Every structure is written in C-alpha cells, then in structure tokens.
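not sure who needs this but someone in the group chat was asking about Late embryogenesis abundant protein LEA-2 subgroup domain-containing protein from Anisodus tanguticus so here u go. i didnt clean anything up, its just raw.
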Amino acid sequence: MSVKQCTHHKERKQKIIRRLCAGILIFLFIILLTILLIWAILQPKKPRFILQDATIFNFNVSAPNILSTSIQVTIFARNPNDKVGVYYDKMKTYANYHNQQITYYTQIPSVYQGHKDVNIWSPFVFSNNVPIAPYNGQDLKDDQQNGGVWLDFKVDGRVKWRVGTITTGHYHLHVTCSAYVPFGNRPGDGGIIVGNNAVKYQIARSCDVSV
C-alpha cells in the first residue's frame, strides 16, 4: 500500500471519528436542552416540612456538661408539585442547640414522594452521655431548670426530581425545624402524658427548607 493510500485511509478514519463525536455532542445537547425546557416550564417547588410534635422521654444535663436525651419528633413532609415527583435519599435527623449537635444521627428510610403526596416520619433523636461545649452546658442546664429549651431539629439528605421518565441528579436537602420544647407538663405548656415520664407536646411549626 502506498503512502498516499495510507494517508487517505487515516484521514477518512479521522473524519468518521469527528462526525461521530459531533453527533454525540449534538445528541447530549438536545437532551440537556429538553431537560432545561421541562424544568423551566414546570418550575418545581421545594418540599414543605412541618414539625408537628415532640415527645420528651428523657432530657438530663449532668456533670456539668454531659447530656442524655431521648426525644421522638413527628415530621410532616409534602410535595407541593403537580407534575414533579421527589426521591428522598440518605436522610438523617438530629438535634442542635446553639449550633452544636447534641444528639446522634438517626436515619430516615429512603422514599419516593409522588405529586402532592405526603409522608410522615416519627424518628427518635437521642444521646447518651454526650459532651456539650462548656459555653452551652450551663445555658442548657439553666433552660432545663426554667422549664423549656429552644432546639433546632435538623434533617439532612439528598433529593432527586422526577418528571415523567426523566430523573435529575442529586441535590442536597437541608431542613431546619426550630421549636421551643417545654418540660415537665407545667400548666399552660399543653403537654400530654403518654407514658412513664414521657410528655408529648403539639408544636406545628413550619421548617426552613433549602435545596
């Protein structure tokens, strides 16, 4: 085979590869453009979260910056979209006090939430002899003695949006449910005794949601 033939064959092969790459890029561009158009038309809304209630089983500050607690919370989650579904994945909840995490992570099962659907979770957030920063320990103990404490119940995870047969990539989900939690079923607190030393409080507070 002559050098001219080899060169011609090589150029033809490169031309086919360039056309193939161009075709792939055009195909990917069309898919991306379709997704963006669907997204712009539907304008998906963030899920709505509400902290409905909290049941206090144990809340004890000791020694002097050590916390043991067990709280069951009821979290309401609603998909407000008419045509967009939501996948929840790797969800975990925990409690914060003055920006410090004071309980362990509790996993929430992964779930798909259809259009306008509602899910209700009732996880326990708890800790056992967890060290608290000294600048928070005394404040937490004072709050306990004064009859209540402001806590941030957090939910962190990932979400994916589903439109028809198209599913997006993962987005980080951050939910903060701030609530004043009273202790001891004092008059006016609205607590209901539900077991030995357990008191349930209706809260019904909207949560801040970031996606």
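also The chain has two helices and 14 strands. if thats useful
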